[in-house]
Amino acid sequence: MMAKNSKTTKLERQIDENLRRVYSDLSDEPLPDRFVKLLDELRKQENSKSDTQSGEES
Amino acid sequence: MKTTRDPKEELVEHLPAMRAFAMSLTRNNAAADDLVQDAIVKAWSNFDKFKPGTNLRAWLFTILRNTYYSLYRKRKREVEDPDGIMAGKLSEKPAHDGHLAMADFRTAFAQLTDEQREVLILVGAEGFSYEDAAEMCGCAIGTIKSRTNRARTRLAELMHLDDDDDLEITDAATLAVVIGKPAA
Description:
The structure holds two protein chains of two kinds. Chain A is mainly alpha-helical. Chain A is 83% helix and 0% strand.
C-alpha cells in the first residue's frame, strides 16, 4: 500500500509539474492590446458617470 | 498581511492568469479572449460585491468559469471525449525518455472534460486549496478531491502512465514487446 501511494505521488508530482509548465507557458503570452483598451474604456465610462452626477451637461 | 488595494487597479495583474485559465477551458485562443473580455466587464460591474482582503484571483476565476459555463459551453457544442474514443489516436507508443513528453501531455490534457481540466488548473497548476476550489466551483470539497484524482488518473491513462508501474519498468516492458519477448 505504501509503495503504491509513493508511486502515485510521484506520478501526481510529474503531472502537476507538467501542468504548471503548460500553464505558465500560457500565462507568459503577451497580453493583447484589447484588454488594456477595455480597461481604459471602463475607467472612462466610470469617470463620465461620476461627472454627470456632479453636474448636468448642457 | 495584505494591504487592501483597489481591485480595479489590481485586476490587470491577474489578466495573464485569467487568459491561461480561459485557454485551458476553451482550448481556443479567440474564444478565450472573448471569454476574458466578458469576465472583465462582469467583474467591473460587480466590484462593489468583492470583499476587500479576500482572494481577488479566486473571485475573478469564479466569474470567468461561471461565464464559461453559462455562455460558452453551450454555444460551442464541442466534441468531448469522455469514453476515450479519440484517445485511441494516442495509443501508438508511450514516451520512452522517462518523463512526460510535452506535446503528448497537451494532447492528453485537451481530451479531458471541462470539469477535469478546470480542477487540474485550479488545484494542480494554480495551487488553490481544495476548499477554495470547491467554493469557486460551487461544489463540495469531496467532489473536488475525487474529481482531481479522476482527472490525474485519466491523464495518466491517456499518457500510458500506470501508477502501478515505474516509468523505467514501462520502458522495459515496451522494450520486451519490441524485441518480441514476453514482458513478464
